[in-house]
Amino acid sequence: MKVIRCKDYEDMSRKAANIISAQVILKPDSKLGLATGTTPIGAYQQLIKWYEKGDVDFAEVSAYNLDEYCGLSHDNVQSYHYFMRDNFFDHINIDLANTHIPNGENLDAEAACAEYDALVKEAGYVDLQLLGIGRNGHIGFNEPDDVFSKGTHQVDLTESTIEANSRLFDRAEDVPRQAYTMGVQTIMHAKMILVAATGSDKAQAVHDMILGPVTPKVPASILQLHTNCVVVADEEALALV
Question: What's the confidence (pLDDT) of residue 6?
C-alpha cells in the first residue's frame, strides 16, 4: 500500500485526479470504478477542467459505480445516478451507455445484484477503482461485519453511515436505510485501487485501514492485501499514521 500525503482537500483532489487522468491517457478505453459522496467531488471537478482544456478524453471510457440507494428513482436528486450525472458524467464526453450503476429501482434484490455482478464480470473488472472510506472503515456500502462480502448485495446501512449521509438530505428520516453495493471481493479484483480520504473525522479509519489488523470489522483493512493500492489523503486524515 502506497500512501501519498497531501496538504489539504484541494491538494488531495488534484493528486487523485492526476492518477485517474494518467490511467485514461495511458489506456483510453479504461474501465473506471467510481465512487460518490463528498470526497471525490473535487477530483471530478479537476478532471472536468482538464477535459475542457483537451488534456483528457473520456470518449472510450466505461464506468462502473460502487453502489446505489434502494428505492430511489434514477432521476431522484438524492440518487447516485443523479449524483454522477450532475457532478461528472454530464460535463465530460463519456458515452452514458457506457456508465453503469446498480439499479436501485429494482426492488428484487437478488435479481438486481446478480445483474450487476454479471455486468462487472463480463467487463473483466475495472482497471482503476476509486474509493472513499467511511468513518467506520466501510468501503462502498460494505459495513463492518463478521465476514468480508463477495459480490454485489443489499445492505442495511448503519446508523453512523445514515448520520454521515443525512447532511445531503432535507431530513434525517429521508435517508434510505438500504442500498445495493459492490462486494469487497469484487472491489479487490480491480487492477489498481485508489483511496481518497480527507478530514480529521476519517483519521481513525485511515489508521486502521493502513496499520490495523485485516478484519471485516474494518472492511477497508483488506486493502492491505491488494498488490496495487494507493491512498491519497490530507494531513488531517493522516494525523494518526
Answer: 98
Identified catalytic residue from 67, 127, 208, 234? 67
CATH code assigned at 194 = 3.40.50.1360
Annotation marks residue 95 as catalytic: no
- Give the three cell numbers for residue 87: 457532478
Does the predicted model carry a pTM greater than 0.85?
A: yes
Q: Which of 103, 117, 127, 138 is catalytic?
A: 138
Which strands, in side-by-side order, build the sheet including 128-131? Answer: 2-6, 229-234, 192-197, 128-131, 31-34, 62-65, 99-100
Catalytic (active site) residue 67: yes
**Is 138 in the active site?**
yes
Predicted pLDDT at 114: 97
Question: Could you say which of 117, 143, 208, 234 is catalytic?
Answer: 143
The pLDDT > 70 percentage for the chain reads 100
**pLDDT, tens digit, for every residue of 130-151?**
999 999 999 999 999 999 999 9
Q: Name the active-site residue from 65, 68, 81, 136.
A: 136
Number of domains in the chain: 1
Among 62, 52, 151, 137, smallest CA distance to 98 is for 62
